[in-house]
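The freezer alarm interrupted the setup, so I double-checked each line after restarting. Inputs confirmed:
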Amino acid sequence: MTGYLTILAFCLAGTLSGAIISLIPSLHIYNTAGIALILWTHIEGIIPYTAVAPFFLSLVVAYAFLNTIPMTLIGAPDESASVTILPGIKYLTLGRGFEATLAGGIGSLIGILFLSVAMPLIYVAMPFIHKILSPHMHAILMAVIVYMLMSEWPKGEGLGRTTWERFRQAWRNVFAGLVTFGLAGILGLIVTSRTLVSPDAGFQNIMPVFIGLFAIPGAIEKLLSRETIPPQHISSSIELTRGDIGWSTLQGVIAGGLAAYLPAVTAGIGGILAGHAVARRGDRLFIVSGGVAKVLYYVGAFLLLYCVTPLTPMGIGRGGLSIILKPVLQPLPRELPMMVGAILLSGCISFLLLIPSTRLTIRLLSRVHYHVLYWATLPLLVVLVVFITGWAGLALMLIASCIGMIPVFFHSRRSNCMAVLLVPIALNMAGYGDTILRLLGLD
Amino acid sequence: MKGLTHFISAIATASFFPQVVRMSATPGAQTDGAQSSFILALAGLYGIMPDTLDFKFGRFFETAEIDVYPDPRTPDPQSIADTLGSAMDRAIIENREVRIQFHTVQLSADHWRQYQIAFDAERQEVAVVIGPVVTTSQVAFAGTEPENRVGIYQLKHARLKPGGARSTTVDIMSGPMYGFRPGKDHLLVDFLPWHRTWSHSYVVGAALALPLWPLALWMNWPSVWIYPLIAFLGFATHVTEDLTGHMGGSLFWPFFRERTRGLCWFHAANPDSNFVTDYIAVILILFNLDRFVTKLIPLSAPVFFLLFLIGPMLVYFLPKLVSTKPGSKPKRQDSVQGVIEAHRRQAAQEELLDESESIVG
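Predicted 3D structure, all chains:
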């Protein structure tokens, strides 16, 4: 009984901590989870072993819900949402940020319910799918890369007097996307083949790169922006039809499912693929499906670790949290119901926290300019990077920031930055990593 | 069909070749011929290539004689209709092809003015209807239509064939180009005359796949013939799938340059046809990957397809089958016709009013 109460207490603690952290723009939960784990390994006993997974899982559940607030209200997307952020921003400019945030939260709640209901089926089916796809994973990732690059179309029709002028103008974003992808891919090959940061921080070595590629450019973009946030209407209801919910669930489950299972495929990339597959349009659909996808991407990926079956005796380790916790965690299949219980509890509390937190943030933003929040966040991110990865990490972050700024200025897809993981993983899985490194003179 | 549909379908086609699936496996899979090959992605690359050739390259090299840039502040539907109708008449008078490019009306980063172009073969008229302001997601802002919405041009020389021209909506990203050519009895109207021509030809597909043969030889890849074959099949899958739509393709360009008409089963952007094709492709890929390498699925093929293909499809279409809503939603074109009809009625009333005023006056 005491054990259950302890788990319950740490679930609540994880949810509350996650909720607070989520409200800080551009701060990723995995960075915080990494720090928390470092602290835990140094002061073992703070969290009993049985409560480690529920605590961190609740942290991530709360993040999946409440990160919608900075994402929508001050436009601070993480790597999972670089595609789905735009409809939220649109709602914000129309004074409907509250509605957009809650619609995203409803999506996350649908995601939690889907995971809870579908988990037995996932537990049975995923080991088979995993074993069938594993030998071809490099080819699947290469297919994702090819599709991402081929499906970025010229924006607009290219105005100009000559063919070349029209071509050049229309191709600006496509070319910027290709450059971003190429540079991020090379950076990924370097980072994954060289130990640039201190070995003590080895499991966080990609963190400065991610902060540089996603958080810093997003913050700089917002600081350069002269836009002001219009007064926001606190609506008493959310306009969602049954069709919106049905299609959003389908799109979100596909997006989140792909992102949860395929290495280096984020919910953003999954969103592109799912959006094209479901082929339906609408801002509400994007916002709600983004909420569903985030839960599957962050939470569902971790739950796959508990798919311990004869086919997958070590579980299916996917997602950032699995990477962080795997060294200290030995998942057992009988713990899966407890994990589902933890996400249900944490999800419901997070949704309830989302409503007052959104109201509070809106009130805060009516008094404090959002630039102030970013000016406060930027030094925090720098300190975090230096604290965990040292000066080498800071240098890495700056280089990654330069690459991350390209899509910001040229309006190409930010998800191209994910080449930092996609390229090295696909090449290494196929066994070509060393050859490419040799060709680049990096061996 | 959409890009992703072509891409996945091409991979599904390639997955029917046992050698391709085995080549794609990593040596760890302990299957004969495992090479960690990216050949499945090659099929996808060639599967999406026809549209890439058109939309990323071809369209910029095709120029129109007439460019229509509607005024973003006060778009004039009559002037647009006059330009369109005159271009059609000119094709007949001068006995040559005339191309006209309609440009989008971008109002801000995310706002566009929608307008519709309609062809009426019964009345031998063309009409332009100015629509609402829409977002990039094509979500309309109700009530943003201007008062003066409709422009109609009565064709003087050109004769439209019933069903020979497709009405269209211009809103986001880029506008359509029309090509008008004199036919035997009627004016021939080509929608996007640069699309699905040379790029959607089996001959071009073969020509583009062929260089992979010497490349495979040079790279010393085993089974050199499989690369061009898979690339060609990926390309051919796209061209064949597009035949289910309205526009068809120039299947044997440059030998036969005419763009054949499609089967008109569904529009290229139809969500149901795209999603269903994607789903079928994914299931086929999974089935083929398993039967040629892992052999893990403990079900016979009929049971597998019943459970994972037919069952989910029934679930997908069930809401539509049991829907109690009467009839289908009115098509966009119907609503355009409605606006035009309303415009005609109003014009007739005004004419009547003018006449009565002149009599009374």
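Quick read of the result. The longest helix of chain B spans residues 332-360.
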